[in-house]
Design goal:
This protein is globular. The longest helix is centred in the last third of the chain and has 15 residues. α1 packs across α9 and α4 packs parallel to α5. Strands 2-3-1-4-8 form a 5-stranded parallel sheet. Strands 6-5-7 form a 3-stranded antiparallel sheet. It is of the alpha/beta class. Adenosine-5'-diphosphate (ADP) binds next to α2 and α3.
């Protein structure tokens, strides 16, 4: 199964992608996670991506396209994959379709997680992640038992550099301009499925699953 998760920052793409990965046994490919790892590892890619990411802007298309082209050719992607955070522009979508075409593959579905921008700002501004196991917390809706410490593994919690109000605003602008047009792009190809990203994580997951299987 080859899937794309679309939706604004904070819609819950990462959370749903992880659940899909566990259910279907196919990899989650998050360009955001790959780029953040590149920054932590001080690679050339990380160095190039950092200023864009910290400012809430998109990393140039050629960098992420190259990254994805390499990634989906790896062995673990043979049974399928979930793209989370890619494509984010029309040129990225066109290159993806070209690459899949070369490989003789097609997409099964594009799931759009729909949510209001106001709601997203609160979610992102309050969120923190465990540096060890990746579990997500929120200062209002899911606070950890001890501030700054993961309930599950005791790992240290951190806030993403781009989860501050000013940068969130910028990310939402970029989404509206660059990424939202993908809904029409995939809609006209007939494989766009919309899911309201409201309710509990499990409720949303049930809807996502009903769209893809
Ligand atoms: P979110 O969806 O919450 O903004 P991501 O982790 O998907 O978070 O992305 C964080 C940042 O990484 C983006 O603001 C952008 O700078 C960069 N990025 C991730 N994916 C892409 C992409 N496909 N194209 C360009 N930049 C990207
Ligand atoms: Zn943890």
């Amino acid at each position: 199964m080859r899937l794309i998760l679309l939706g604004p920052p904070g819609a819950g793409k990462g959370t749903q992608a992880k659940m899909l990965k566990d259910k279907f046994g196919i990899p989650q490919i998050s360009t955001g996670d790959i780029l953040r790892k590149a920054i932590r590892d001080n690679t050339d890619l990380g160095f190039k991506a950092r200023t864009f990411m910290d400012g809430g802007q998109l990393v140039p298309d050629d960098l992420v396209i190259r990254l994805i082209r390499e990634r989906i050719r790896q062995d673990d992607c043979q049974k399928g994959f979930i793209l989370d955070g890619f494509p984010r522009t029309i040129p990225q979508a066109e290159k993806l379709s070209e690459t899949l075409g070369e490989m003789g593959l097609t997409l099964d579905a594009v799931v759009d997680l729909e949510i209001e921008p106001e709601e997203v700002t609160e979610r992102l501004a309050g969120r923190s992640n465990c540096s060890q196991c990746g579990t997500m917390y929120h200062e209002v809706s899911r606070p950890p038992n001890r501030p700054g410490v993961c309930d599950l593994c005791g790992g240290e919690l951190y806030k993403r550099e781009d989860d501050n109000r000013e940068t969130i605003h910028k990310r939402l602008d970029v989404y509206a301009k660059e990424t939202a047009p993908l809904k029409e792009y995939y809609g006209s190809q007939g494989n766009l499925k919309a899911v309201k990203a409201k309710g509990t994580v499990e409720e949303i997951f049930m809807q996502v699953c009903s769209m893809v299987s």
